[in-house]
Amino acid sequence: MERLSCIIYRGAREADAYLYVERADDFSRVPEALLARLGELEAVLEIELHTERRLARADPVEVMRALRDEGYYLQTPPRDGLGRPVTYGS
Questions:
Q1: Is 83 part of a structural domain of the chain?
Q2: How would you classify the pairing of strands 3-11 and 41-50?
Q3: Is residue 35 within 8 Å of residue 88, measured between CB atoms?
Q4: 8 belongs to a structural domain
């Protein structure tokens, strides 16, 4: 089973958006415009991904593919049919 370690960051400017990268503080493959949009990043979790890993809002296979191919994965909140972020509990 393929395994891939990654670090998850939360951006200061965009609620519920999380940036996954393979190595701590390595944003070399993340577009500058995306980094600017997210603002200051705070590491929130380090995990090991594999096909059996369950993630709350992402497919681990897609996350691993994006990390390998693009160098990062951006998780954003789900959206309704009108493109508005879906909020829970409010």
A1: no
A2: antiparallel
A3: no
A4: yes
Q: What is the C-alpha to C-alpha distance for residues 72 and 32, in angstroms, rounded to an integer?
A: 12
- Its domain, for residue 57, covers 3-75
The pTM of this model reads 0.85
CATH number at residue 34: 3.10.510.20
Q: What is the pLDDT of residue 1?
A: 73
Q: What is the pLDDT of residues 13-60, one digit of tens each?
A: 987 899 999 999 999 999 999 999 999 999 999 999 998 888 888 899
- 72: its two tokens: 């990062």
Neighbour tally for 73: CB within 10 Å: 21
Q: What is the DSSP string of 17-66?
A: -EEEESSTT--TTS-HHHHHHH-SEEEEEEEEEETT---SSS-HHHHHHH
Instruction: Check residue 82 and report its DSSP letter.
Output: T
